[in-house]
Amino acid sequence: MLARNETIFKWSLYAAAAALCFLVQGCVLQAVSLWGVIPFLYPLVAAIPATYEGSLAGSIFALAVGVACDLLLPAPLPCFYTLVFPFVGLCGGLLAQSLLRAGFLCSLCAAAAAFLLTDGFHCLLLWSAGKAAWGTGASVMLREFCVTAVLTVPVTFLFRAVYRKTHIYD
Amino acid sequence: MKRFFKDHGIWVLLATAVISVALAAMSFFSTDASPLVDLAGIIASPFRSAYTQVAAWFNDKQNYYQDVTALEEENAALHKQIAEMEAQIRQAQDTMEENERLREKLNLPLERYELELELANITAHTVSNWTSSLTLDRGTDHGVAVDDCVISSTNDLVGIVSEVGTNWCTVLTIVDTDTSLGAQVFRTKDLGVAVGDFSLMGEERLLLDYLPAESQLLAGDLVMTSGLGGYYPSDLVIGTVAEVQRDDSGTASYAVLEPRVDFSELSQVFIIKSFDIVS
Fold first, then answer.
1. pTM for the structure as a whole
2. Which ipTM value was assigned to this complex?
């Protein structure tokens, strides 16, 4: 019973941290345009918790983030983020398990993979609609990543704090 | 904690997947937003409105202290523009009277559009780098429906309603990649299709495609909705021709259009809920 309560508490904290990121994105970052793009936190919210919680739990959390994004953001498919974010979580989890220890560098690499997957899927959908824009898509992806990369630091801090708070006895 | 995911992880995954598929199916089969999307929009609406109001307050304060000289210059330019427009109105009045007389002689009924408009505030601008959208504070409660046109106060086309909830709706602007509108060049009467292009979206421009081979467009030509098919009203200004280009085969030409609306400056728009041709 205690384990279940702990689980609920842990994921509630993760959800609260994600909600905070959503709020910052909606209220602050939405109005900021750097290098022709707005910083985009959502892929980070899907990727970074997975680097701490592992690929399975991370993928499920990323899937929930994807559902929330699909409820709030316009996208070419009604379930665009729900489809792509589990892979983002999986990548983040696998990266932390096999290549890099969870931390800022790992978060940065997971963020790069997240933008590659999300924006790659965008490009694929544009191509399938007969509106291929690989070059412009790659440029947007690069700029989006560069502009958002700085924000991996506070987001990693936030999710690391949640991880430490909920894994005291691990 | 790890055991929970080992034991129940697959069920959590399955449940979320089922919810996602149900969401996608509901969005696909329904013209309005699905209940969950609607609920998310309703919850987000007050936050969006509050943020917009705070941002508007700061902008107002900032604008209040802006350079007076710039405002005086703008005022002088506007006075000049008003004088020119008054002259044009006088000329147009004569033309209208003449047109009316000729129509009477030929027994032609006078046709005009009657638009049912709904004033809406913009609560959020573009939310991702891959779409160009606006969120408005009007929804099904106010009679708004998917595919309604949205125009600025100067009758310039802003976009099309793509999703609608109880008290909110999402508008994809005309530069979004989903845009495809019947268009007509005002000067030459050439017909084409105004389509959104991702490469041009960042510059807030769009394409005028499928033009006739013999089309002779000039930079600055006004492009409006054609209204063909009765899907959207005609004569809404889409934008002006910025440049004309030939396709790779050299047989067809296309134009790059610059919308007349500055999307970032918009704060209020009108939704065309219905339109009728009246005689």
1. 0.74
2. 0.79
